[in-house]
Design a protein that fits this description.
It contains 14 helices and 25 strands. It has 431 residues and is of the alpha+beta class. It folds into two domains: 58 residues, no CATH class; 340 residues, no CATH class. An eight-stranded antiparallel beta sheet has the order 19-18-17-13-12-23-24-25. Helix 1 packs across helix 4 and helix 7 runs parallel beside helix 8.
Length: 431
């Protein structure tokens, strides 16, 4: 895959995803973990001679419902202490070859995969054809999938980001509790997830950006995700935020927003999911990456936050957006252009969809503004973003059917932490 002089090989990216970013392969056999203290024989890797009593037990443990826990090889019984991860891979026809490469890497490591092809035309049709009452039902297949997967890898299966246009608002509202419940199921199962951005031709057309330019930006930002300078900058911001209490964002056009990060873990979207991330409640990541972020105290945001333009996912770009926060919630909002997109968003979602969810700081020098492809735009060096909605998956408490980032260029702004300047006109300030 070549764009603007940048070559991105699917095999290279697949290896990064499986082996570096997500560490997909095998996990402890739950049967072994459950029985190892009760049966001392399991402390060994294998045995040759067993009693009649143990032989019956070993025969039971050979059943696949136990993992299997025991594998007989000739006269020797081996204990299977690890089993493969289960991985759900969602892809679009444009990312099918990448999905196949990811699947092969998973198989090499002993993992099990389930792949599903998705297109936004099909998603939209499901809303248009289904009765409204059916949209209120939780699909048993989705419940089963998300309850039993160790990993969910989404290779940007949504290629038409304005797909909600033309769908009756009542139908979108009817499905919101279902979307919220799916998030709850995924949060409960501690599923680890990855969203990989991709330059679909339809997305470029919707955003009004040339396909060649769009490919160049996305591929460049993916390559920069794994560079040392990206990693270092992310961690510079993490250290500046760690252990701090209050954040204030100011800018010339009228932004003046304060909120608390007291007691919240500062997370690093630095290219791989680490044990530190997981211990801090962060079980997911993006590619492209390059972001220091956290979940603010959900009741703490007060003030005004203004962004020049932002995608309202499913509808399009709104311009001149102003959000007014009080005690953590958006209590008023406006937009110079396409305020109706915001109206639709606020009407169709459920739960804590209007409560502050995230502060993120972009650190990826390969990212450029794409007119609304958030996974890239939120990583742009010299920007920050404030999000509202769901944040349980990275240390917050908001349970919602949506998560929406509002990305702010900081060329005319400042970011303070405990009254100390850490970003000035989009550049880090070290002390």
């Amino acid at each position: 895959m070549v764009a603007g002089g940048i070559m991105l090989k699917k095999e290279w990216l697949a290896k990064k995803i499986v082996n570096y970013s997500m560490h997909i392969g095998q996990k402890s056999n739950p049967t072994y973990e459950k029985l190892k203290k009760k049966h001392r024989v399991l402390s060994k890797d294998s045995v040759k001679r067993v009693s009649k009593k143990d032989k019956k037990l070993f025969e039971k443990w050979q059943d696949i419902d136990y993992g299997p826990l025991v594998i007989k090889k000739g006269k020797k019984y081996e204990f299977k202490k690890k089993i493969g991860h289960t991985v759900l891979i969602s892809y679009n026809p444009s990312t099918k070859k990448l999905a196949q490469a990811v699947e092969r890497e998973c198989w090499k490591n002993g993992a099990h995969t389930f792949s599903q092809e998705t297109e936004t035309a099909r998603i939209k049709d499901s809303y248009l054809y289904k009765p409204t009452d059916s949209l209120r039902e939780l699909d048993g297949t989705k419940r089963a999938l998300f309850s039993n997967m160790d990993y969910y890898i989404n290779l940007e299966s949504i290629e038409n980001i304005m797909w909600k246009k033309g769908v009756p608002p009542a139908k979108l509202s009817a499905s919101a509790p279902v979307n919220q419940r799916i998030s709850q199921i995924r949060d409960k199962s501690k599923e680890r997830w990855l969203l990989v951005g991709w330059p679909h031709a339809d997305t470029a057309k919707e955003l009004g950006i040339g396909l060649s330019k769009f490919r160049q930006i996305v591929f460049h930002s993916i390559e920069e995700s794994f560079k040392k300078h990206t990693f270092d900058l992310v961690w510079d911001y993490v250290r500046l935020l760690e252990g701090k209490k209050e954040v204030r964002i100011e800018s010339k056009e009228g932004t003046d927003l304060t909120f608390s990060i007291k007691g919240r873990k500062i997370l690093a979207d630095d290219g791989f999911l680490s044990e530190r991330d997981i211990a801090n409640g962060d079980v997911g990541m993006n590619i492209p990456c390059g972001e220091a972020f956290c979940a603010p105290v959900e009741t703490s945001a007060d003030g005004t936050y203004i962004v020049p333009r932002n995608i309202i996912r499913g509808y399009g770009i709104a311009e001149g957006i102003k959000l007014k926060f009080s005690k953590g919630r958006v209590v008023d909002y406006s937009a110079r252009k396409h305020e109706d997109y915001l109206n639709k968003f606020f009407k169709e979602n459920t739960g804590d969809y209007d409560r502050i969810a995230e502060l993120g700081i972009g650190c990826n020098r390969g990212a450029e503004f794409t007119n609304g492809y958030i996974i890239v735009d939120e990583k742009i060096l010299g920007t920050l973003h404030v999000a509202i909605g769901w944040n349980i998956g990275f240390g917050g408490k908001n349970d919602a059917s949506s998560h929406l980032d509002f990305i702010k260029p900081m060329q005319h702004g400042q970011l303070f932490v405990d009254n100390k300047l850490i970003m000035d006109k989009g550049k880090i300030v070290k002390r």
